[in-house]
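Help wanted!
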Amino acid sequence: DTEVTQTPKHLVMGMTNKKSLKCEQHMGHRAMYWYKQKAKKPPELMFVYSYEKLSINESVPSRFSPECPNSSLLNLHLHALQPEDSALYLCASSHSMNTEAFFGQGTRLTVV
Amino acid sequence: SQQGEEDPQALSIQEGENATMNCSYKTSINNLQWYRQNSGRGLVHLILIRSNEREKHSGRLRVTLDTSKKSSSLLITASRAADTASYFCATDYNDMRFGAGTRLTVKP
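Answered by r_m:
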């Protein structure tokens, strides 16, 4: 199984809502990543977990809250988002940091 | 910025032609990776080349690495319309941060 599964595929939320994005992999990878991608732009790294510990936080606003409950799961909790947070959110995993990464198909988030 | 920088930013070719994209970086690295992204989808890993390797092949892909010039190139031979995508490089030094990428369009 070489898949990274992201749910939901699409999400529309209001600015006062709380929602979560989920990412799951069963490849035994110990590094997991969250990216944000706006249209026609490259993916921007948000967070990196290595061995279930937050390794990199790219100064992301606190309305985005990552969580790694176990080595297979990665969540991104969303609260009080702004319309400019609308984007494609990508999750990825790799055996260890900076090795071949596998990406999910992303969650298309729209904030209204 | 420590991420790899790809050039050109956009490349348009006819089917059957070869496409060459370049990546430059600023520091010593242990490895460099190339990824492809079809519009609105996740990235797909293409190839990883280590700092002690100069060239690597995978199917129609050929990657070279010149550590003295801190640059890498990705060559796609006999391109197909399905190769239309954005291509990104990443080095181990920059912890999977991507540059602007090269947007390749292959016209049938």
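OP: Thanks! One thing I noticed: Residues 16 and 78 of chain B are 4 Å apart (CA to CA).
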